[in-house]
Amino acid sequence: MTGRKKRNIVVIGGGSGLPVILRPLRDCNVEVTAIVTVADDGGSSGVIRNFMNIVPPGDIRNALVSLSLLPEDFLDIFQYRFDSSDEFFKNHALGNLIIAAMTEMSGDIFGAVQKLGRYMMISGKVYPVANVPLVLHAAFTDGSTGVGEHEITIAHKVIEKLSITTEAGKQPVPTSEVLLAINHADMIVFGPGSLYTSILPNLVIPVVGKAVKESPAKKVYIANIMTQKGETDNYTDASHIKAIYHNVSKNIIDYVLTNTAVVPEDYIDYQKWNEISTQVKVDTNEDRKLGVTPITGDFLKLRDQGAFHDGDKIVRKLLDILDNKIK
């Protein structure tokens, strides 16, 4: 409708899943804010984090690229990952180094990302959930514990409880901009992304979880297409919701979007995507018992011998919810 004020959509997560819906949302008549986890300690981001003691830049980089209006040729350069025998540059994405440089120049990751967002002409906002790198802590059901996203992921154990601290062991403090975005949101979307290492690291920050809980926004969880080995084995969509309730707060989700299109077993390269195990099953009865409205459909995109969300289909459904076409 011409002249209607743009609605605010806040997307919370990280990893490779978040850009799947950020790019199509960028082209809709909405204000988009991506709130991105800063607990990553693996790969190029982990190396930069350890060397420079700054927020890991990888998830931030992907969010900036997804919302950027610059030509694809430039974005390809920003995303370029060095294939070099040099021990420092090997496997580093150029964009990670640029974010690290700008952070060092300004002494503030939040300000650096906002400035870079202007340079990259992003349509929306990208907010690191905190100004300092955070450390993920997991208590496993076997009584053991894990510290750090990478260690928790490779442990391949069932997670009982998740928490997060600063590197000094203190409770994280999100920026005021993060809390304002949540408070002013018309819709808050969780994911798509890894439950325990992309979505929950944001929500288990107590102040963030409380702000989301108290927000009048419509809250939508995008269930994963596939389970993740050692983390969400045998999880249904309702199991994911229960994990969020257990780690954050009950009744923090209004809708769950779950794919029902069948993933062909002979298409998936399980060695290439070693975190994938089985397709997440839908349990609409349990969803409703949890106070969540299930929305099912074909949200599947098959590519690169893996199963992913179709961002365009997901965004169309999100807008239907926003426009009250789905109750």
UniProtKB/TrEMBL annotation:
GO MF entries: LPPG:FO 2-phospho-L-lactate transferase activity
A GO biological-process term: regulation of cell shape
Keyword Cytoplasm tagged: yes
CC annotations in GO: cytoplasm
Cell location: Cytoplasm
Keyword Nucleus in annotation: no
Keywords attached to this entry: Cytoplasm
Entry superkingdom: Bacteria
Described purpose of this protein according to its UniProt entry: Required for morphogenesis under gluconeogenic growth conditions.
Entry's family note: Belongs to the gluconeogenesis factor family.
Name assigned to this protein: Putative gluconeogenesis factor
Source organism phylogeny: Bacteria, Bacillati, Bacillota, Bacilli, Lactobacillales
